[in-house]
């Protein structure tokens, strides 16, 4: 083995030997000292054991903790994972607007979410499916909201199982396909953690259920505005808790009841909460660590590509005269109707998400100011019709004080309106049906689950109908799909509205909504009524077919 045609190996061996001999000659004085003074050797050994460089020792602590956790979750099996499939059910708790004024403005909603997501790490493919069923809230049916997002072949797509069609989407990427639900799976958090030893920082020791945990800060998403703090069990290395903080708001993820699938660990129970209470609580979860089958990433063969849609431009505060003396004013998500009744104006509809800083800055006041600027109308607003008790349609109505405006309210909503706006606003309860302006304006009550009392405003001569939360479209031509919330529920509200209009023999030429700039025609409503309200079993079968 030492012979080679060019003698290169023998030459290299001689070169190394000569340098080794030279190094030994330089070390002779030191070796002689160790022979004469053995205690020096003992001292060097002791220093090596305790660590002669405290800084290097501190830098390695985080790496040791992370390596222990990665090993607990499967080590090399985790890092080389070809794919993963997760099937889970969550209870989702949220605070939202009440369906009845006696409940107060806000109540707790409870939804059940059935999730299925699959990741192919090798081919960089991902699919996410969700059926979101509202159990407690102001929904109009048991039909679930269904979401199906896909990323494969470096392209994203959204699949609509209500209308059985799909839409390519550049907004769907490999990272955002699952809408953040991967952050609730500890296995994937630890897989990402394995690459973040250097920037991680040990903070403290904390006790969870009597067990000590290392607390470390980790830049999991690489965003400076979001911090991640992990609590890692010192006994078994498992992730017990994660805390995130963004703009001062903290969220807590507690991982419990860990199980094993193919050498990979995962928490079968998870609680996600804030200081205000629980948000998500897992009901069931199963995890498979095999590579997902190709069929998971395919669009159903019978589904058609959805036509491209153009959003209706609502960026500017606009004034449109729908008929003589009838003005539709607003922008973004809030519009108001103003009717010239002769000596005064009557208004209906408004929307505002948050309280404004001062008087005259709310959406209703801005709409009125723009109307007067555009038309030179200086008449006072004598009445404003409050359609229902939801606070997003009440905010800003304190500005009616400056106009000495009387708020017309359904009797069941009077206390809720007074509580929201204070004692100084003028409130007058009215029966429904009710007429104004010499019979030119009719008010009808259309009860539904969204709000127990919904006053709709009908102008008989121009056949214009205003509703606030009943139905509308944010597109120039298209209508929303009933697959997603809140559009899913607005179709059931539309059914209630059309039934009420038919009972009264009311004909409508123009439909306007407080949330949409687009004015709908009767032909648009007929199209909406023809769209099927797909029943729950059918939607679930389409969404989870073949799984």
Automatic annotation (TrEMBL):
Signal sequence residues: none
CDD domains for the chain: metallo-hydrolase-like_MBL-fold (cd06262)
InterPro entries assigned to the protein according to its UniProt record, in alphabetical order: Metallo-B-lactamas (IPR001279), RibonucZ/Hydroxyglut_hydro (IPR036866)
Domain Metallo-beta-lactamase per the UniProt entry, residue ranges: 323-515
Protein's UniProt name: Metallo-beta-lactamase domain-containing protein
Organism of provenance: Pseudoalteromonas rubra
